[in-house]
Fold each of these.
Amino acid sequence: MPEVPTTGQLLLLVAATLAFAVGGVVSLARVWWERNDLRVFSKAMMYVGVLLSAIVLIWHSASRGSWIPLEDNFDAFIWLGLLLAIFVQYVQRSKPLGGLEWLVMPIVIVLMIAAGIFGKAKPHEYADGSWEWTHRVSSFGGLFAFFIAGVAGVMYLIKQNQLRAKHPSTGPKLGSLERLEHITYSSVTLGFALLTIGLVTGLVRVLTHSKTNLGIHWYTNPKVLLAFAVWVVYAIVLHAPINPTFRGRKAAILSVFGLFLVLGTLIAVQYVPSGGQH
Amino acid sequence: MHRLLLLGLNHTTAPLEVREKWALSADRQQQAIAAFRERFAGAEAVLLSTCNRVEFYAARAPHGGPTADEMLTFLAEFQQLRADAFRPHLYEKSDRAVVEHLFSVTSSLDSMVLGETQILGQVRGAYELSAKLSGAGKMLNPLFQRAIAVGKQVMSDTALSEGRLSVASVAVDHAKQIFETFADKVLLCIGAGEMAEAVLQNFYSLQPGRVLICNRDGVKAAGLAERFGGLPVPFDTLSEHLVAADIVISSTGSTLPIITQKQFKSLRRQRRGRPIVLIDIAVPRDIEPGVGELDNVYLYNIDDLQQVVSGTLASRRDAIDAAKLIVTKGVEEFLIWHRTREMGPVIDQLFKRSHELASEEVARTIGKLPNISEDEKHHLEDLARRIVNKLLHDPIKTLRESNTSHGLPGGYAHAMQKLFQLKDENDPPAE
C-alpha cells in the first residue's frame, strides 16, 4: 500500500539533495581550480548523496510494505534522480566526461525537490495490471534517457561554441563532439523506444480502463499532447544521421528543447487530471 | 681574434611572403656557404633557414670581412633579390648580442611556438652542414656546440616543451576535441611540403583509418604516402576525396584558395553532414574562411593555431623564466670561457714580451756596471720584474674581470696586440 513520506524520510531526502548540490558545486569549481582534493571531495559528496537517496528509497519501500519501484511519486522521482547520479558516477569511473557532474546534478536536485513536493500528495491509486506498470516503467526509463540526451546536448553546444571560438582548450573540459553526439543519439534511441512503449501502453490503458478520467477527448489532454510532442521532437532527432539538416548543432538544440519538454510533461502530469493521478 | 655577426629575419620581423623568398633548401645552403668561403677567406659562416627564420651567422677577424652590409649584399646576390627591398625586415646583431640570440633560438625562446623542439634539430642540422664544409671553425664551432647544449638543457630542465606545443600538435589537439576515435577516419593531406609532413607526422600518431595524399606533384605525393602508409591521389580528384575526408591538412604553395565555400557547400549533401576538421597551415590560405562558417565544419588556419599556443604562455610563465635563466647563465659562461680562451694567449704574450724587454734592459745596465755583485744583480732583476708586474697588474686585471656586457674580447685583444706589438696567432705568416 503506497504511503505518504514521513518527516524522517523527507529530512534524509533534504540531506541527500544537499550532498548532490555540494558535490555539483565543487565539481563546477574544478572548471577554474583543477585540484585533486576538490575532485575527491566532489566525488565523496556524490556518493553520500547516492547512499542517502538509496536509504530513503529502502525506508520508504519498507514503510509502505512493497518493494516494487515507481509505485508512487516520491518513489519514482527519487529513483529517477538516483539512477542519474549513479549513471554519472559510472561514466566518471569508466571513461570520465568533464562537466557531466555539474550539468546533471541540477536535474538530480530538481527531481529530489520534486519528490519532496509532489511525493506528499495523495499517493497514486495504482492501477492494477501489467499495462500500467509497463507504462510507468517505460515512461520513466524514457525520461531518464532523455535527461541524459538533454545534458549531452547542452555539453555539445558548449563544446561547439568553444571550437567555433577557436579556443577549444579553454573553459570547461568536456568530451569530444563525437562522443557527446554518440551519447545523445544512444540516449535518444533508448528514450524514444521506451517512450513509444510508454505511449502505446498509456493509450491501451486509456482505451481499456474505465478508471482513467482523461475523458472522451483524451487526445486533447495537455499531458497526452506534451508526451506526443516529446515523441515527435525525439523522432526528428533520431532522423539526424539520415538527414544532414538535423545533424550536429540542430540535433543538440532539439535534444535540449526535448529536455525542457520532458520536464514540462513531468510537471504537467502532477497537475493535469488523469487516470488516478491528482 | 674573431668578431661575431648575425644578419637575419624571422616571423616577428618579416611576413611569410618575405621569409619564403629568403628561405634556402639544404642544397642552396651548401652552395651559399661554399660561395661565402670563397669570397671571404678566413671568415666562418653558418646559415640557418627554417620556415620561421633565415639567419646568417658569421665570425670574422676584427677588421676583416665581411661587414653586415657585405653579408647582405652577398646573400641578396646569391638569392638574386634586391637587398634594399628587404632591409626593413632584417636585423643585425654583433658579438654578445649574437650569442644571446643564438642561445635563445636553440632554447626555443625566440620561436613562434615557445617550447617547440624542432628548432634544436634545425640549428644542429645547419651547424653540421657548415662544419662539414669547414664553414664553422674556431669561433662558430664552440658557439654552436654550446648553444645546442643550452637548448637541450632548457628542454630537459624546464617545462617549456611540455604540452607538445607546436602548430602541428595544437592541430592534433583540436581534432581530438572533435573526434573520439580515429581508426575509422579518413585523413586527407593536400600538399606534400615540410609543414604538411610535420602536421601529418603528428596526426599519424593517432592512427587514422586511411591517409590520402593529394598533391600536384605525384612523385612527392607518392613519397609522402609511402612514408605514412597512405595512398597518393590525383589533385584533380580533390572534391571526391573531400567527401570522404574527416580531417584535412592543407599546406600548398597555391596563391589562390583551393577549397572555396561554394565548392564545399556543394559537397555537404554527399557528406551527409559529417563533421570535418580543416587544418589550413598554408600562407596564403588554401581554404576560404567562409568554409568554416558552414555547419559541422571546423576550420583552423595558422593564426588560429598560433593564438592557442600564445594563449598558453601565461600558464608557462615559470617555465619561460627558468629557461631564460638557463640561457643567461649559458651566455655568461660562454663569454667568460671565450674571453679566457681569447685573452689568455694575449696576456701571456704581453707578460712574456714585457719581461723580455725588462730583462734586456737589465742585462744592458749590468753590462755597464763591471763591479756589480751577484746579490746586486739579483736585486736589479727583481726590481725590473716587479716594475713590469706592477705596471701590467691593473690593465690585465681589468681585462680579465671586465664586464662581459662589453661583448666578446676580440676588440680588447686586438687593441692590446696593436698597442704592445704582440703577434696575433691568426695573422698570416710574414712572406
Note: The mean pLDDT of chain A is 83.
Amino acid sequence: MTTSEFLHTAWSWNPLLLAACAAALAGYWFAFRRTGRIGYFVAALGVVLLALVSPIHALADGYLFSAHMVQHILLLLVAPALALLSLPATFSPGKMPRVFVHPLAGWLAGVGAMWVWHAPALCNAAAVSGPVAALQSVSLLVLGAVFWWQVLAPRDDQRLAPFTAILYLFTACVACSALGIILTFSPVRVCSVFMHPVDRLGIMGTIRGGWGMTPERDQQIGGLLMWVPMCSIYAAAILSQFARWHATPALPEKTP
Amino acid sequence: MNDTTATASPPLLLTEHARAHHRVAWIATVDHKRIGILYMLTALFFFVVGGVEALFIRLQLAVPNNTLLAPDTYNQLFTMHGTTMIFLVAMPMLFGLANYFVPLQIGARDMAFPRLNAFAFWLVPLGGILLHFSVLAGGAPAVGWFAYAPLSETPYASQPGVNYWALALLVLGIGSVSASINLIVTVLTARAPHMTLRRLPLFSWMFFVNSFLVILALPVLNAGLAMLLIDRLLDTHFFLPAGGGSAILWQHIFWAFGHPEVYIVAIPAFAILSEIIPVFSRKPIFGYEFVAGSTVAIALLSLLVWAHHMFTVGLGHTVDLFFVASSLLIAIPTGVKVLAWSATMLGGRLRLETPMLFCVAALVQFLVAGLTGVTHAVAALDWQTKNSYYLVAHFHFVFVGLIVFAILGALHYWFPKMSGRMLSERIGKWTFWLMVIGFNMTFVIQHFLGFAGMPRRVYTYPDLPGWGWMNMVSTVGAFFMAAAALLLVWNLAHAFRRGPVAGDNPWKAWTLEWATTSPPPHENFDALPPIRSRRPLWDEANPDRPEPVVGGDDATSPVAEKSKAGVIAFIASEAGFFGVLILAFLFFNATPQAGPGPKQLDLFKTGMFSLCLFASSFTLWRSEVSLRNAKHRAMKGWLAATIVLGGIFVVGQGLEYWGLFASGVTVSTNLFATTFFTLTGFHGLHVCVGLIALLIVLGLALAGDFEKRKSSALGAVGLYWHFVDVVWVFVLTAVYIFPLLK
C-alpha cells in the first residue's frame, strides 16, 4: 500500500465513538447553547476524532510508537483543554469529590497518565488489545480534564493563582521531559510490540522503506514528541498564566 | 605596647576597636552594596587577566605559521580565557550589579540573607585561585572551556589542571546558586510596602527570572563536574567509551547547562538595556508586559534547546529536526525585546550620553548576533559553519557585543550612584568609540574568515589566500579594545578621586535607587517616596500627570517566610542535581552490565533501613506539630527520634557498602558500581548534612531557643529533610525496585 492509498483508506469509523461524539455535541448544544463557546467544543471533538479516527489511529494501533505518542498528547493535553475552555463561566460541576479538585490530584493525573501508560506492560497491552486501548483513550481524556481543571476551570476562583499555576505547569513539564529524555536515549525499546508489528494493512514496507521509520527512530521520535512539543504546550500555558497575572484588573490602592 | 601607642596618639573619634573594625570592614562586610562592589572589582580584575590572555591568543594568530606560543601554551591560554570570561568576569559582574541595585530598586534594606551573600561572593576569589593554582601544579587545563570528554579524561589530560578546573567550577557554581537563591528570596520577601511584583523595575524583574534559570541550570553542570572528577580521581568510566562510558553524555550534561548559561549572562544584559534605554529616551519602556513576559519565554525555551550545540555530534536527523524547530522559536521572544527597545527610542528625546551609546551599540550588535544565531539553528547550515571562525564571531557578538557593551553601559550609568561622582563624559566617548571600532574590526571579519574555511580552536594556520590579512585586522582590532579597557580603568580611578559630584539623580531616572543619596547610606533609605506605579520618581516629579497606577496583584497576598522560601529554592536546585544522577544511572543500567549488577543488592535489608528513613519524616512532622502546639518536650523527643532513625539509615547504608567492598565491588569495578556508589553516596552525604542540621536544631531546642522566640529553623530544616527522604523514594525505585521488574 502506498502512502496516499494509506491516507485515503486508513480511517477507522468506529460507530460507537461517532455516536458518543454526536451525543456529546447534542448535550453541549442543549446545556450551553447560549452561554458556552461552542467553537472550542467543536475543536475539542475534532481533536478527539483526529486522534481516534484519522490514520494516526491506524498507525498507533500497533504500528508506530510515535503515532501512539501523538494520540497520547492530543487526548491528554489538547482535547480536554479545549473542552474546558468551551465551558461557560456559570458552569459548576456539581458535587465533586474534593480529591478531584485538589491540585496534587490534578498534577498526579497529568503526570501519572504519562508515566503509568508508558510502563512496558501497559504500553504493549494498549497497542494490541482493543478494550485496553479504549480504556486508555477514555482515561487520558478524563485525567487530562482533571489536570487542566486547575488551570482552565471556568471560574477564576476555581483555578490556581497564577504563580502557583506556573509552578504546577513547570514541574509537570519537567516530569514529562524526564520521561521524554529517557525514551529518546534509551538503548532498549520501551514498547516491544512496535518492534515487530502484525501487518494487517500491508503498509510495513511503506513505513520501514518509504518513510524510513526504523523501530529505533520510531521510539526516538516518540520520546522527542514528549520532550519538545509537549513541553512547548506547557510553556505556552505558563505564558498564558503570566498574561492572566498581568491582566488582573487594578485594585483600588489602599491609602496608608 | 598597646598602652603606649594609645596614650601617645591624640584622642580620636573612633575607638581602637572601631578602627580595627574599619580595617577589615571590606573583608568582613555583609552589606549588599560593599559586596556588590567587591564582586565588580573582582570581575574587573579577572577581565584584565582574561583580556591579556585574549591578546596573547590574537598575537599568536596575527600572522600565519606563527611560533610565538607553543601549541600547548596556546591551548592553556585558550581554555583559561573562555573559563575566566564566563565564570570569573560575566557572572561575578552581573551578580555584583544585582547585589548592589536589586535591593535598592525594590526599596529593601539589604539582601534577604546577608551572610549567605558574603559567602557567595568569597567563593568567587576562591574559585579564581583554584583555577589559577593549576598553573603551579603542572600546567593550566588545555581542554577548552567545554572540556569535552574523553579529551578531559586522565588518559588524554594526565596533568591535574583539569581537576583544578572542575573544582573551581564547582566552587563557582555553588556560589552562583547561593547568590541566586538569595536574589529570589530578596525579591519575594524584602520588597518595600506597595512595591508589588507587577511594579518591579524591569532590571529587578529580569534578575528575578534569571535567578530561577541559575538554580535550575548550574546544578546540572555540578553533577557533570562531580562525575568528571570521580572519573579522574577514582578511575571510573562515566565519560570514557573505552570502559563502556559515554563521551556524548558529557556533552549533553555540559550543554544542558551551557545553553541556559548563555541566557544566564544575556538576560542581565537585557535587563540593563531595559533600564537605561527608557531613561535616555525620556519615555517609559514600550510594552513592559511584553518585555517582562518574553524574558519568561526565553528562560523556559532556553532549557529546551541545548541539543543545537550538538548538531555536528551525530545525534541523527530526527533529534536535529526537533531542536532546529525549538531553537528557531527563541527568535520570537528576543525579537519582541528588540522591537520593544527600538519602539522605546522611537519618538523619544534621545540623550546620547555614554551609557546610552553603549546600550544602542549593544542593541545593534545583538541584532547581528541574533541573526547569525538563527543561521546556527538550521542544522544543515550549522554543519558547514560550526567548527569555523563564523561561530567564534557569532558568540563573541553575543558575549562582547551584547553583554560586555551592556555591562559597560551599566558601569557608566550607575557609577555616579556607587561613588557619588560623575565619570568623564569625554573619556567615556573615547572609550565607546575605541571599543566599537575595535570590536567590529576584531569580530566582523571573523565571519568572513569562517566562510573562507578557517577552523576554530587551532593554534596556527597555513598561509592561505586572505587568511593572513584578515587575522591581522582582527588582532589590531583587539588592541583597540585593550586601549578602550585601559581608558575605562583610568576613567573609573580618576573620577573616583576627582570627578564632579553627582547628586542623587544625575540622569533624572525614575527608579528607587535614585531616591537616595549617592552613595547610599548604610541603611539605604531614610524614607521612601510613595510607590503606585513602575516609575515612582516620575510620579514624585510630575504630580500633575502621574503614571497609571499598577495594581491588582499580590499586594495583599501573604509574603513568603524568608527561611522557608530559601530552602525551597535550594531544594529546586538540589532536585536538578539528583535528576541528572538518576538519569545517568538509568542510562547506564538500561542494559545489564558485565560484572556486578542490581542482583547483588539486598532489597529486604535496604527496605528495612528505608522504612527507618521514611519513618523519620513522620517523626519530624510530629515534632513540627508539637512545636506549633507549644509542646516543647514532645518536640524535642520527636526530633531526637528523627535523628536516631536517620542515623540508623546511614549505618544501614554503611553496612551495605561494607558488604559490597568485602565482595570486591568498588566504585571503579564497572559502570553499575560507579553509578550506584555515586547516586547513593551523594544521597547519603545529603542525609549526613541533614543530620548535622537536625542536631544543630536539637541543640538550639535544648538551649531553650524555641521557647524564647518564634523560630523558623525547624520548619526550614524539616523541609530539607523531607526532600532528602523523597529523593530516596526515587533512588530506591530506580536502583533497587526497577531492575527487579525486568
Note: The CA atoms of residues 455 and 512 of chain B lie 49 Å apart.
